[in-house]
Design brief:
The chain is an alpha+beta fold. The N and C termini lie far apart (about 55 Å). It is elongated and about 55 Å long. The N terminus is likely disordered. The protein has three helices and ten strands.
Length: about 180
């Protein structure tokens, strides 16, 4: 019984961090894929490139070639590949939870009131966002910009992420 309990203690925490799931795969006209995660957001223009040593995911790049989206876990990489190749079911109606957000890095851009921030979703997907502050009349306006191929499907979740980013970058934005 003690061994079973020890196994559960080791296994359960790992399950708690594996909530980022692929909920839909859609092939685009250009052959790339649009992948929806937990029915909360999607990433467009993901390519599956096959070479003689296997296949690899190619994440979209911003204009100018900047890489603002990255898969950071082998498990998510495999889930996406399997979903694209039709080897895995993509309906996560009852199993997907909101991803755990974490700030990986945040740094102020010189001589501006803007911050570049790297956010992690479940330690599996990282995105670079741009947080900024400006004045409009007497009001201070805060803005968060996301990569061009990253789109929210849930307005409440978008507001939650925005609040999370601004809360964690406010000190940098206000200095």
């Amino acid at each position: 019984m003690t061994k079973l309990f020890a196994f559960l203690l080791l296994f359960l925490p790992a399950c708690a961090f594996a909530s980022l799931e692929v909920s839909q795969v859609q092939k685009q006209q250009d052959g790339d894929y649009k992948i929806t995660f937990c029915k909360l957001f999607k990433i467009e223009n993901i390519a599956l490139n096959k070479n003689s040593f296997g296949s690899f995911l190619e994440m979209p790049r911003e204009l100018g070639g900047y890489k603002n989206l990255a898969i950071t876990s082998k498990e998510l990489d495999l889930k996406i590949k399997n979903a694209i190749e039709g080897l895995a079911k993509t309906d996560t109606k009852n199993t997907c939870q909101k991803p755990i957000l974490k700030i990986v890095s945040a740094r102020k851009i010189k001589e501006s009131s803007s911050v570049l921030c790297q956010i992690s979703f479940d330690d599996s997907l990282d995105i670079i966002v741009f947080a900024s502050k400006y004045k409009k009349g007497q009001k201070e306006i805060y803005r968060v910009s996301y990569p061009q191929d990253f789109k929210y499907l849930d307005k409440k979740y978008k507001a939650e992420v925005r609040t999370f980013v601004l809360k964690n970058t406010k000190v940098l934005l206000d200095n």
